[in-house]
Design goal:
By secondary structure, the protein is mainly α. Helices cover 57% and strands 0% of the residues.
């Protein structure tokens, strides 16, 4: 009986340790509508510094490709959104709504070969802190 209980506990511990990280991790998701809204916002607000291709700007760093991906490698979507919210645009800090910042980030992610899904990106930065960027 004692051996059976230990086996059950060991199996439960193994299952829990394997599945526990999945309970904390959330999936990177945004809708095509968010990316489309972000594209329009990008043109109005971001393109002047970061360029029309997101990587040919005169004043801003590239927002697509290896430079961008290396910069955000190992970081969360919440960190990215927080950075954009707090630092962009430099001449009008925090001038957009949370939904607009989220849409802009969705567009940037779409230009970094991340596909849209049926699930909208959350605007809550704390919730997005659990969503890791794929690079």
């Amino acid at each position: 009986m004692l051996i059976t209980a230990r086996i059950v506990c060991s199996v439960a511990a193994l299952v829990f340790s394997t599945l526990a990280p999945l309970a904390w991790a959330q999936e990177l998701a945004f809708t095509q509508a968010q990316a489309d809204n972000g594209k329009a916002l990008y043109r109005e607000t971001c393109q002047i510094c970061h360029g029309s291709s997101l990587a040919n700007g005169q004043f801003g760093t590239p927002l697509r490709g290896s430079f961008f991906q290396d910069k955000w490698k190992g970081k969360s979507l919440g960190e990215l959104l927080s950075f954009v919210y707090e630092k962009m645009p430099p001449d009008k800090l925090m001038s957009l709504t949370p939904a607009e910042y989220t849409a802009a980030v969705a567009y940037i992610l779409s230009r970094n070969e991340i596909a849209a899904s049926e699930t909208a990106m959350d605007t809550n930065q704390q919730a997005l802190a659990k969503v890791m960027l794929p690079w």
